[in-house]
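Q: A reviewer asked whether we had any structural model of the full assembly, not just the individual parts. We don't, so I'm hoping you can provide one. Inputs are below.
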Amino acid sequence: MTQGTIARPAPARSAVVPIRPHRWWRDPWRKPRILQTVTWAYLVWSLVPLTIAIAISFNGSRSNSVLHGFSLQWWWSDPEDSLWHDPELHAALFQSLRLGITTVVIAVPLGVAFALGIDRWHGRPATGATFLMLLSFVLPEIVLGISLFLVFQHLLKFIELGTTAQILGLVTYQISYPFIIVRARLLTIGRQYEEAATDLGARPRQAIRRVLLPLLYPAIFASAALVFADTIDDFVTVKYLSGPATSEPLSVKIYNFTRAEPTPAVNAAATFLLLTTTFAIVLGYFAYRRATRGQRTGGVSDFANV
Amino acid sequence: MQKASEPTRRSRRRADRVAREGIQYPRWYWPSFALPGILWLLILFVLPLYTVVSIAFGTVDPIFRGPLPVYQPWWWSGEHFGETLGKVFGIFEPVYVHTFVYVVVASAVCLVLGYAVAYYVARFGGRHKGLLLVLLISPFWISYLMRMLAWINLLDNDGYINRFLMFVHLVNHPIGWLEGRPLTVIMGLVYGYIPYMILPLFGFLDRIDASLLESGRDLGGSPLSTFWRVTLPLSKPGILAGVIIVSLPMFGDYYTNNLLSGSPRTTMIGNLIDEAYSTTGQGGEMASLVIILMVLLIVPMLYYLRSTRRTAEAT
Amino acid sequence: MASDARWAHELSRRDFLKRTAGAAVAIPAAAEILAACTKPGTTSSTGSLPYQIARPDKPVTLPMNGDPIPSDTPIEQGAELQILNWSQYMWKYVLNQFVESQQDNGITFTAPSTFQNMDEGVAKLQAGQKADVFFPTIDVMGKLVAADLLQPLNHDLIPALQKDNWKTFQNPYYDQGWRYSVPYTIYTTGIGYRRDHIPDDVIHGMDNPWEILWDPQYSGKVGAYPSYRDVMGIVLMKNGITDMNTSKASDLETVRKDLLALTEDVDVRISYSGAYAKLPKDVFWLMTAWSGDMVAGWGYAPPYTEQAYENIGYWFPADRKGPVDNDLIAIPKNAENPALGHAFINFWLEYQHAMDNFSWNGYQPPQNQADVSSLTTTEGLFSEISNWAAPAMYVSPWMPDAVVRQEDFDVGYRQGPLTPDVDDQWHAVWEEFVAGAKS
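A: Here is a predicted structure for the entire assembly that you could use as a starting point for your response.
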């Protein structure tokens, strides 16, 4: 060891030699302070306004910009305008839930099946179909909403504007989400599991049902959660395809009220919607955990990698 | 009686065939999965788009001036479309110009900010990665309207932002943030769409092999040059996808402007379409505007579609 | 590389067109193809309009497009009441009272379907939306009857019109013999303003108070409704043009220039909620206003003290020569519950209910028993039951211009229907304004 040791002169003063300040940014392994600040600042900017909006739903006064005391009047005491008492908001809430659940039930299986089919099917028709699906993903929603409104008004006249039309429109808009998510997952899975299953004697349908689908559960649940949240939130397509007042979901009501004269009841309605979606997502997450006992790797990061 | 877990003779024969030839699915097998989706899109996506075209090139009913679609291409009349096209280069030109400006600026901000956040969480998330991820995903399930509502509350004349500014004596009177300011609209666009930039970027950056990035440093590069020469080129597909996913819908956005600004000065393309929708006699114009919008977006759309195919084929 | 060449080939234009257009043309529903075999629009009539244009000096009797329901039609049992109306136009309290009064018939009601402007309302009706009552404006009556969208009213089922309401509405110029419509509210269109920033005498003392909306010192503080007839009507008034239905190109050009000047000079804001949100909150100092909006303004002015109410003012020409009009209630042809609709209209035209509704929405009803000179000194029901607000009169005493009298209809200017091509020209001017075009 003496070969490699460089003899150091004994320090004249204390043994602690401070690192010269101007060199800290040259340290390749330092913590990225700037990025860290930016990230946390972004999170604050992104989420703090929401806490204020939620707080305003408990506002003691009619103002929707400044808090004056705490009150549950917008949630249930006010006999006309509160969430609990206003039948308009009830009908709207039920409509939101109805649309959300129906759309998920239709769009997710369609999208997943589409992804499976496209992934394994080669040829020009497959490319065309993919093109169409991705086109529906990137087009601005107003294009879709208006074109569907026009088609229901002029061509497919047997479908009246209202809940049916809204569901058809929403599924069309949302069908690309499960497709993209599941397809991305399929690309990383590859074929080896299916081939292993068939090597062991499974029929094609069994191979899919018992091997492939379980592997896709994170993707399927993630897309179901996303479609549900996005449907409940949707107000563009739904507004163009709405019929009578009862077919206007909460999102459209909130949009209309915000443009007219919003009382904190609007904030209460929006907060309620948020709670519903959160509840649905948590439910979905637990269902996912139950369905994938024994094969999960990470926690939430599973979903980010879909 | 054979136990269920024992291989049957049939399955053994199948297994032998698979071992020899690979899995054989009938030719119609996989396409049949995709068929329902295809039919759905044909009827409820392609057909409506064709109806839009039929209306743009159609006629008008005499009493209510409502649009009448003409489905046969040989009877199409270019009257509405020509008129609208003239307006696009005439009285609507300022609208198209400043929509373009807003979208470019908002997309750029989304990209820079979104990349920084995605990069940080992907590479330096560490112990907090799960929590950070939940916080990043949360805007997806918090409704867009609720998030805009929050800002409308805050930016109101007697909202907290103005109160704060007056408190620190930066201004003396409340600023009308919601009164037709392009800056507010751009901020609204960024706020609304940035999650769509962050999550795909995060997924992409997360998948980049950390050893590739570390090798840059190992070979003596400073963090900045590693970023510039290794990370950035690797993340190009992710950036492209993110920018397209964010900017294309912005072109059709009309509600951000409606909620955050009351002035004709910040009218966007989507507002023109929405206005034409709720005006009698302008059905043909509405359809023409929709077609013009699609044409405007077709090049970036095709670019996105080609690049996703390239990514799909590369993996 | 071969695969590169394949991509480039595959996404070539030909393939793009083939893939999408080919699929699309093949599909239109058979019935529609057959129906569309003749080019639509070519079979339309000649140059004449299927309906008459009504004017005060050329009254119109609308043709009967069927029979009204028989007088002995019972109220439909267990029906759900469907209303199609402007938003914020009917007080929920009175609506609930009506539903309660029909309790024995098991009537239910959730909420009215609403629209933000008449174009949207007509579009919804055309699209087939079912409603038992509809609230049109005068200018669309001819169109609606010609397109068979309204049904004639049975006068026996609506005694309140003859009993309680102004006689003139039993034979209005746009619907002689009140075949299809009854009046809902009456109002004038003037200027709403903040009295704390613009003293009453300033605006009343001007030669042409309409011009105050273009005054650059109020830049950024001026609001306008997204309603083309009303705002363009005000521009016409400002220029001394009294024909609210003008078809003259020179008039429309003047309006166009002045509208664009609104954006240029005062950075005008377009908002539905000027009266509910912007003026009371000091965001707008001036706005185009319907009298009813300003009258109801106190209910939207935190902190709901008399001092807050006093900030809201309304101006209308002293000689009452300005836009004055009324709204209507009608029953659509496709109403599922026409008898209920008639009962609804009758309820709403009764004195007490009309006044109660007035106390909330600010729009005066043409009631015989209402003493117009006492409106500024009487408190309405809404104010009485609102314990979160200081008391307010039907019409606040500092906005006497907002009270509408029968005589106003003799001298005022009315908005009537426009022929479609003139309507298109008006819309074109409006569109240019809304798109923020530079003049």
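A: Points you may want to mention in the reply: The mean pLDDT of chain B is 83. The domain at 92-278 of chain B is CATH 1.10.3720.10 (MetI-like fold).
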